[in-house]
From TrEMBL:
Listed PANTHER family: TRANSCRIPTIONAL ACTIVATOR PROTEIN LYSR
Keywords: DNA-binding, Transcription, Transcription regulation
SUPFAM superfamilies, sorted: Periplasmic binding protein-like II, Winged helix' DNA-binding domain
Family under the similarity heading: Belongs to the LysR transcriptional regulatory family.
Lineage: Bacteria, Pseudomonadati, Pseudomonadota, Gammaproteobacteria, Vibrionales
Annotated Pfam families: HTH_1, LysR_substrate
The protein's name: LysR family transcriptional regulator
Keyword Chloroplast: no
Domain of life from the UniProt record: Bacteria
Chain ranges of the HTH lysR-type domain: 5-62
InterPro entries listed in its UniProt record: LysR_HTH_N, LysR_subst-bd, NocR_PBP2, WH-like_DNA-bd_sf, WH_DNA-bd_sf
């Protein structure tokens, strides 16, 4: 026979057992004595056996009652703990986040955003992995990670994409003559040594085309996997670099705004297409959605909003 015990039955039973009296239990529970007695009878009927001996208006617990009390304590304590945990989840103060990130954002920017997000949330745990953008796309599509930040992926049904289109900037040493210019162009960088991404990267190909179009000599002295590595060469006044604002923001954060490299707008526009990526077949948790919103806040705080190009997400 199926048994359907209710929380009220168990709470009433535990209060009676602890108080030793129906009348005291009734006062504790703010109920009438007949209501408490009826609840005990319904519990016994549900179980199919008696928990108490009734003797001249007194309840005498049987051995089975003490066994049930142990189980009741465990059940109600577990329910109380579950309610507390879900309240923490509701308040975004407990949970797990899994974030996959491309190198340009993962070295400084994303850790900075994560640190700010969890500083008042000691029960939030975060796993952040740095991989190439293509791997980030695949991980999020496979629901291995809740959120990804990467270069814009190709359209696929398994992911949601929030575009972040950023206008490129030029990194120069603060003592370089070009540091005084409001906007830097290919003509300003004619035959100037540059730190660039590897030659086959679409951005490198675009920059090369812009230089050729304007009759300027393109001089990629250092070819790298990411722009952040190139800032070391810029600091040593060995080159300049046309880079994405995310890498620039990461450098600024890492140097607390005191670095030797400064960043100026570059024209014509070199657009870096990034994206916040989430699984399309798995709803975001409240915590994950709050973190996505925090990424946008981090982009604004890092000054990247001024470099946004048309077509960026409305999350700003």
């Amino acid at each position: 026979m199926d048994t359907n015990l209710s929380i009220k039955q168990l709470e009433t039973f535990r209060t009676v057992m602890r108080s030793g009296s129906v009348s005291v239990a009734a006062r504790t529970l703010c109920r009438t004595q007949p209501a408490v007695s009826a609840m005990l009878v319904s519990l016994e009927n549900e179980l199919g056996f008696k928990l108490f001996e009734r003797n001249k208006g007194r309840l005498i617990p049987k051995p089975e009652a003490f066994f049930l009390l142990e189980e009741t304590d465990a059940i109600l304590e577990r329910l109380t703990r579950a309610a507390q945990l879900m309240a923490e989840v509701k308040n975004l103060s407990r949970g797990n986040l899994r974030v996959a990130c491309m190198p340009a954002a993962s070295l400084y920017f994303m850790p900075h955003v994560i640190a700010d997000f969890v500083k008042d949330r000691p029960e939030v745990n975060v796993s952040m992995m740095m991989r190439s953008s293509m791997i980030v796309h695949d991980w999020v599509a496979a629901q291995q990670y809740d959120i990804g930040y990467a270069e814009m992926p190709k359209e696929r049904e398994s992911i949601n994409v929030e575009p972040i289109r950023l206008k490129g900037v030029c990194a120069v040493h603060r003592d370089h003559p070009l540091a005084g210019k409001a906007v830097i162009t290919p003509a300003d960088l004619d035959n100037v040594p540059l730190a660039t991404l590897f030659a086959q990267h679409p951005t490198s190909e675009l920059v090369r085309f812009l230089f050729e179009e304007q009759g300027a000599r393109y001089h990629p002295r250092f070819e790298l996997q990411n722009y952040i590595s190139g800032f070391e060469f810029v600091e040593h006044q060995l080159c300049c670099s046309i880079c994405d604002p995310m890498s620039a923001a990461s450098y600024t954060i890492s140097k607390s705004g005191q670095g030797a490299v400064v960043f100026r707008p570059f024209a014509p526009d070199v657009i870096f297409e990034h994206a916040i990526i989430t699984p399309s077949h798995k709803p975001l948790s409240r915590l994950a959605q709050a973190f996505v919103d925090h990424i946008y806040a981090g982009l604004k705080n890092a000054g990247l909003e001024e470099y946004l190009a048309p077509g960026s997400s409305t999350g700003f």
